[in-house]
Amino acid sequence: MIRGIGAVTIDRVVRPIQLPHDLELRLVRADDATRLADAYTRNREYLAPWEPLRPDAFFEPEWHDDEVRLQLGSAAEGRSLPLVITDGDRIVGRLNLSNIVRGASQSASLGYWVDRHYAGRGVGTAAVLAAIDLARDELTLHRLEAGTLVHNHRSQRVLVNAGFEPIGLAPRYLRIAGQWQDHRLFQRLLDD
């Protein structure tokens, strides 16, 4: 069980998970900065409608170097689980469990994306299903939540295929592509 443990222990507990098409879901590593910058640069236009506006610095390895360090620190404290989807040495997606809350809630937020060349091949659903297993079995969480833009039907299909159910609409929930946009909210109860 992961509850505020050191990064070395997280590496042992979160072992790489095989996904379809010989892909792998694994914990982000300190040396992933260049691979992350490359993945985001390759998918810059593809992801732009679904993400916050990104400064040019975001697409440089130095930005990801700092960010990965922060993410691994948060993971070591039990507040998040930053994962990457890989094809060999190449990063082809991200999956994050963030805002892990203990106490009465025992929940986390799920976010993910898949490289445009791998989209529509079941990779997102397989990665989300693997994250559900980690959240239930290793993090001992009760609930995962996720939100999608109301018009992001592909992401909604991934969530529904992974057993999430819609729970409502959050008006002007996040600032995406430079505008406050409505999101459809989903949840998956893990102990049913």
UniProtKB/TrEMBL annotation:
Its EC number(s): 2.3.1.267
Keywords from the UniProt entry: Acyltransferase, Transferase
EC class: transferase
The keyword Hydrolase appears for this protein: no
Highest taxon of the lineage: Bacteria
GO molecular function terms listed in the Swiss-Prot or TrEMBL record: protein-N-terminal-alanine acetyltransferase activity
A Pfam family that the UniProt record links to this protein: Acetyltransf_3
Annotated ranges, domain N-acetyltransferase: 23-191
Family assignment from sequence similarity: Belongs to the acetyltransferase family. RimJ subfamily.
PANTHER family cross-referenced by the UniProt entry: [RIBOSOMAL PROTEIN US5]-ALANINE N-ACETYLTRANSFERASE (PTHR43792:SF8), GNAT FAMILY, PUTATIVE (AFU_ORTHOLOGUE AFUA_3G00765)-RELATED-RELATED (PTHR43792)
Protein name per UniProt: Ribosomal-protein-alanine N-acetyltransferase
UniProt source species: Agromyces ramosus
Organism lineage: Bacteria, Bacillati, Actinomycetota, Actinomycetes, Micrococcales
